[in-house]
Amino acid sequence: MTNNILLVGVGGQGTILASKLLTIGLLESGYDVKMSEIHGMSQRGGSVSSHVRYGDKVESPVIELGGADILVSFEKMEALRYLNYLKPNGIVVVNDFEINSMPILSGKLDYPENAVEVLKSKAKTIVIDGAKEAETIGNSKVMNVILLGTIIKSMKLEDIDWDKILRDNIKPKLIDINLKALEVGMNLV
Prior knowledge:
- The chain is of the alpha/beta class.
- The chain has a single domain (2-98, 115-187), classed as Pyruvate-ferredoxin oxidoreductase, PFOR, domain III (Pyruvate-ferredoxin Oxidoreductase, domain 3, 3-Layer(aba) Sandwich).
- It is 39% helix and 25% strand.
- This is Indolepyruvate ferredoxin oxidoreductase beta subunit.
């Protein structure tokens, strides 16, 4: 059986780092893992998606439409953009956070005011305020690791040695705050 996790956000939010940490943890636990990442028009500010598939044997790195077990969105509008990738019984974890894209900044589009309500009407949705949680623990840049914690808990991956994964892959001066962020994220779901 293959499990499918789709992480989406905007460039600069740490979506790719979170997916890489997730992939490393899954690989070190013996799963067959495939990861694919897609960057938008610009690395910082463009749409970013990362497909992580794991199980006994994974053939393709890309999640098909309607195939994601969980959609984790670092930004609300990105959750709406990628909702068609979610399985009918899948879960959305959405960060209650807005980043205005260039079409919105230029006035060509309006940011959807009811993004969370739309998500809740279409799928089981867990809403978190990752920015507030990150500020509470003292570093706004760990929002991505908080969201990683929500994936770990939602997908029942707590038995992996995430402490080791973070220690091996995060700068030493940032390990403690990231360990705390991971714990906070796991406690949000």
